[in-house]
Design goal:
- The structure is a single chain.
- The chain is an alpha+beta fold.
- Helices cover about 20% and strands about 30% of the residues.
- It is built from 4 helices and 12 strands.
- The chain has helices spanning about 35, 60-75, 80-95, 170-185, and strands at about 5-10, 15-20, 40, 45-50, 55, 105-115, 125-135, 150-155, 190-195, 200-205, 210-215, 215-220.
- The strands form 3 sheets. Strands 1, 2, 3, 4, 5, 6 and 7 form a 7-stranded antiparallel sheet that branches. The chain has a 3-stranded mixed sheet with strand order 8-9-10, with helices on one face.
- The longest helix has 14 residues, at about 60-75.
- The protein is globular.
- The two termini are about 35 Å apart.
Length: about 220
């Protein structure tokens, strides 16, 4: 969309300087922590347009809570819930003309938290940037809602006990790219990941949830 939300953090000042600016490229030092040590997490939520024209944002407080929990695991400062929700709401309000009205469409909201301090050395950064960008989206698959073919990955793993599997960290998605890339030419849409220890228990399914139906019971990992 036309604008983005920015919020800075330093150990000395805490969270400060919230602002909405025109969408533009970010300026980072080549030694920025996020580029070398992967201190980065993100969220994904949506805004929907009602028939009367009102715009509703779906449960942002849950995304705020998950990002704070993930930030703690990555040794990053958590964004306070009020600043998270206020940033999302103000940006969506300003760029509300970007919210599509077509059935099956929505405005995708991408809050992101990265370490921006420039240094070479393995430690948590002292400076961070929280930003939010928006994009209108349709169905995840070009053909819309349809059955998907699933590749069961038995070699690579995406998450291990004690690792980052419970965190929406950028590194988790990088770890899954190769398996997904290899599966697509064989006609598969998604990768089903197995556990890291036994390689036989279901962990998760790529970019969506997975449910199993056992007679009258629905089970999800």
């Amino acid at each position: 969309s036309d604008h983005m939300y920015l919020l800075n953090f330093t150990r000395a000042q805490g969270w400060h300087n919230p602002r909405i600016v025109p969408y533009e490229a970010l300026s980072l030092e080549p030694a920025a922590c996020v580029l070398h040590y992967a201190q980065a997490s993100f969220e994904g939520l949506k805004a929907f347009k009602h028939k009367n024209g009102d715009v509703a944002i779906f449960r942002p407080q849950f995304n705020a809570a998950r990002m704070r929990k993930g930030a703690e695991r990555l040794c990053m400062p958590g964004v306070p819930e009020d600043l998270f929700i206020e940033g999302v709401a103000e940006l969506v309000r300003l760029d509300s003309r970007w919210v599509p009205a077509e059935r099956g469409s929505s405005l995708y909201i991408r809050p992101t938290l990265i370490g921006t301090e420039g240094f070479l050395g393995v430690r948590p950064a002292d400076e961070y940037l929280f930003f939010i960008i928006l994009s209108p989206v349709g169905a995840y698959y070009a053909a819309g809602t349809h059955p998907v073919k699933i590749w069961v990955e038995t070699s690579q793993i995406r998450a291990a006990p004690g690792g980052l599997g419970a965190v929406k960290a950028a590194a988790n998605y990088a770890a899954g790219l190769q398996a997904a890339t290899l599966a697509r030419p064989q006609g598969y849409d998604q990768v089903l990941w197995l556990d890291a220890v036994h390689k036989k228990y279901v962990e998760e399914l790529g970019t969506m949830n997975v449910f199993f139906a056992f007679k009258n019971e629905i089970v999800t990992p």
